[in-house]
Design goal:
Blueprint lengths: L1 E2 L4 E2 L40 E5 L2 E7 L5 H14 L5 H6 L3 E3 L6 E4 L4 H9 L4 E4 L6 E6 L2 E6 L11
Parallel strand pairs: 6-7
Antiparallel strand pairs: 1-2, 3-4, 4-8, 5-6, 8-9
Amino acid sequence: MVVGGAGFLLNNEMDDFSVKPGAPNLYGLIGTEANAIAPGKRMLSCMTPTIVLKNGKPYMVTGTPGGSTIITSLFQTLVNDIVFGMDARANVNAPKFHHQWWPEDVRIEKEFPAATKEALEKMGYPVKVGSPWSRTELIRIVDGKIEAVGDWRGDDSVAGE
C-alpha cells in the first residue's frame, strides 16, 4: 500500500509483535510482554536496509527479507566483502549460517563447508542443517561500475546499466 503524496510504502509489520508473550514465533524467537501488540507501540523489527560508504561515496547497498535471519545474513554480506574481499556474486551466493538467542542451535544451509560444521560441533554448538533462507540483494559500485546481484535463494533478478 502506498501513502498518497508521501512517497513511501506501508509494510505489514504486525507479525513483528509478540502474538503471545512466552511463545515462540516462526523463527523460534520467544515473545515478551515488552513486544506485545498495543496501541501506540512500535514493534521489534530486524529490517536493516544498509548503505555502506567508502571514502565518503556510496560503495554498497544491500538488504534482505527473513525475520530474525536478516541480521546474520547482512552481517555475513558485510564481512564477506569488507573482511574477505569476496566479489559480489560469490558474496551473495555463499552458504549462510544463523544463530539467535533461542533456540540455541546454529542453523546452516546444506552447502555450508563440512569442516566448519565439524569445528562448530567440536566447540559444543548444536548444528542444524536446513533449507535455504534469506534472499540477500546487493549493489556495489567498484571503479565507477555497478555490480548488482540477486540471490539464488529466491525468484530474484537484477538489471542495470
